[in-house]
Amino acid sequence: MNDENKEQKFGVLTADQLIYLNEEIAGMAKAGLPLEEGLASIAREMSRGNLKNATQSLADDLKRGKSLPEAIAMQQGRVPKFYSSLMNAGIRGGNLPDVLALLTTYARSISDLYSVLYTALIYPIMVIFVAILLVAMIMIFVMPQFIAIFNEFGMRLPFLTQMIVDVCQNPFHTLVIPLGGIGIIGLVLRGILNATESGRCILARILYSLPVFGVLIRSARLAAFTDLLAILVENQMPLPEAFELAAEAGSDPILKDGANKIAGKLRQGASLSVALKECRILPEVVSWMAGLGELKGNLPQALKQAAQMYSRQVAMRSSMVQSVFPPLIIVVCAGLITSVFVFAVFFPLIKLLEGLSK
After folding, report:
1. Which of 8, 35, 121, 351 is the least buried, fewest Cβ under 10 Å from its Cβ?
2. CB-based contact 23:39 (threshold 8 Å)
3. How many domains does the chain have?
4. Which residues pair with 76 in a beta bridge?
5. Looking at the whole model, is its pTM more than 0.85?
6. What residues make up the domain containing 64?
């Protein structure tokens, strides 16, 4: 079966599936068990799915005489690119079980990191959705009653009230089409920017410029990048290749572009501190820690410290987002809805009652 057919047959493994597969390989390697037979047995016990297919494919490749890194390399597109490279490093150093254990720890930490990130973002999104739903229900069920009263008395409505009446009477032309047009333009621009590396960098900078949320996402990506880079360097991988693989594993186009430039400078003989200073892809504190770590011979420890620092930032900002933003959004939405009703609906209604009383 060629690589193209495999790519069609299998899907990308999720983080949990990759952790499970890695733990099984690590356990068998530590116990000295034959991997091809063990993986085949595990695959037979699994239900259908990507993990079963990938595990069976690994077992088949090992039975054909391929080494473990070669078999993992055949799974490119389903497992991260750095996975087989780290296995090679572990086999060369004679510490494959320890390397696999490090990979499991890394995968779990990244999974936990993004779980915190998603949890922090989903609550405000749900609050915003409920607010939009509430406004829609008011426009559909409440506003028509007021509109009927205003029409019955032939009132001359203020500008704000008339605008809301127009939206309620013609929601498709006044609301759906403009918002839909803005959404389509946004999607087209995103598609155009995503087509090039420089465009993806622009999108990333726009994302990072968002208050609180941008810093939160940026910190999570930096934590993942520095953590993996520390593991790669710790296992004697050459610095240029380590930077390229760590950036490839992430989803930050700015880091990827900068890491490739750093790798090029390192291959030209520049020191890490000089390369980081010239490229400036990492925050100043990380560049300083990495340069000092290289000078003192403890670069992996310095990078791990940077990863822990950004992980703490993610946890702290996530807690703030979860505790501050939902109430803030509720207050803003409630204030907006109340203001609209007071000035656009009840104010004309009060004038109507005053006129009737006279």
Report:
1. 8
2. no
3. 2
4. 79
5. no
6. 3-79
